[in-house]
């Protein structure tokens, strides 16, 4: 009398196991190159657009003829769409309906239910942009001193800092690596909540594409994550051959991969993206999710490594005599932005961030308390560096060299 029940139970167990078992037939392709009926299904134009917008914004922050309204418009892009008007030099960006701000701290996993923090983070970038115009621009030709914004020499370069020694353009640029690129990649497009939203799995299994497109919704979401890393690559199907083609994640992936302590990280990330996309095509969602976790781990490591690197470079640049503060200020300004980006890192196989807002705010406050970089100590920089490295599998010595 129990046989029918046992047979049903056994069938259910076998079905459940088979659903979770990786498909051994899914091979990792040599390139990020996927086609349907002879045409490419890869698309991430929105990510390319936002990277280009951020690039112009950073360049314009050092154009002392700009107004805060013009710079903020680059951040929000609220001008009428479909017209060649707006703040960007590239008319295609002015005509775009996309913006930087709309995707800052906007991931479904971290910020959909945390709108207050999302709004605060968005405002941080606006405040840095406004401060650049109101604090730094008026003192363009004045030497910076403690408490007074102005210019400061960094070798043959000139840096422009606030009264604490911080370059606002570096805070914005490196902060966007976390708040825009990393958050959207790790906590939005690679999230099962986005990939498997509604009937995405059913449509993907049936290879039903979006209306007028060559890709399924799930394929496109994965590509959008990919675009935040390789969106400006000359050959996005083979991007490792020309790493460093933007000033954001791609640039620093190249820097970290060139460090002998971390050589191979670029290939690991690229391989995970390729295999995850192939798994989507094959309908192997267990394998897809495993690749997403690899990407979360390695991208998080990348940002943390660069945070420690710049803090340690800043420490080594603290003047023992004289007033050659420029190199140190530049390193610590980049470090400031990477520390800010720690908030968006995602533990693999977890819904938790590596660092809470409270932890990151604590690091930031230590960096800019009092007179900020003018009087920061090596002990403080070591403490923050150790706190960061303790959550990963690398040492301060490895990252800082």
List keywords for this structure.
single chain, 401 residues, mainly alpha, two-stranded antiparallel ribbon, two-stranded antiparallel sheet, 16 helices, globular
Number-wise, the strands total: 4
What general outline do the C-alpha atoms trace? globular
Output mean pLDDT. 93
Report the helical percentage.
40-55%
Strand fraction band? under 5%
Order of helices and strands: HEEHHHHEEHHHHHHHHHHH
Count of helix runs: 16
Roughly how many Å apart are the termini? 71 Å
Structural class: mainly alpha
- The stretches of 5 or more residues where confidence is low (pLDDT under 50) are 1-21
Radius of gyration: 23 Å
Strand order of the largest sheet: 1-2
* Biggest beta sheet attributes: 2 strands, antiparallel
């Amino acid at each position: 009398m129990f046989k029918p029940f046992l047979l049903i139970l056994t069938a259910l167990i076998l079905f459940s196991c088979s659903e979770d078992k990786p498909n051994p037939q899914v091979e990792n392709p040599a390139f990020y190159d996927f086609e349907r009926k002879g045409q490419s299904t890869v698309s991430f134009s929105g990510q390319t657009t936002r990277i280009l917008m951020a690039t112009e914004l950073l360049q314009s922050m050092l154009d002392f003829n700009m107004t805060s309204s013009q710079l903020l418009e680059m951040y929000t892009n609220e001008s009428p769409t479909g017209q060649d008007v707006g703040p960007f030099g590239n008319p295609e960006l002015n005509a775009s309906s996309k913006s930087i701000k709309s995707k800052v701290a906007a991931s479904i996993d971290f910020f959909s239910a945390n709108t207050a923090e999302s709004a605060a983070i968005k405002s941080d970038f606006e405040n840095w942009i406004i401060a650049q115009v109101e604090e730094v621009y008026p003192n363009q030709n004045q030497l910076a001193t403690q408490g007074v914004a102005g210019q400061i020499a960094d070798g043959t370069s000139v840096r422009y800092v606030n009264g604490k020694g911080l370059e606002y353009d570096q805070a914005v640029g490196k902060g966007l690596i976390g708040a825009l690129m990393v958050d959207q990649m790790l906590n939005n497009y690679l999230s099962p909540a986005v990939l498997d939203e509604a009937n995405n799995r059913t449509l993907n299994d049936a290879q039903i594409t979006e209306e007028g497109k060559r890709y399924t919704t799930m394929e496109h979401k994965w590509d959008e994550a990919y675009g935040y890393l390789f969106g400006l690559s000359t050959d996005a199907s083979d991007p490792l051959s020309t790493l460093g083609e933007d000033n954001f994640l791609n640039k620093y992936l190249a820097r970290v991969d060139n460090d002998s302590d971390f050589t191979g990280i670029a290939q690991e990330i690229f391989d995970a993206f390729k295999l995850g996309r192939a798994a989507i095509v094959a309908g192997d969602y267990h394998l897809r999710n495993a690749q997403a976790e690899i990407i979360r781990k390695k991208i998080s490591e990348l940002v943390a490594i660069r945070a420690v690197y710049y803090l340690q470079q800043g420490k080594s640049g603290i003047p023992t005599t004289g007033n050659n503060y420029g190199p140190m200020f530049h390193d610590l300004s980049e470090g400031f932005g990477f520390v800010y980006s720690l908030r968006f890192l995602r533990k693999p196989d977890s819904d938790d961030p590596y660092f809470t807002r409270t932890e990151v705010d604590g690091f930031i406050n230590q960096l800019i308390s009092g007179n900020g970089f003018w009087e920061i100590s090596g002990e403080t920089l070591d403490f923050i560096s150790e706190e960061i490295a303790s959550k990963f599998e690398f040492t301060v010595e490895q990252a800082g060299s």
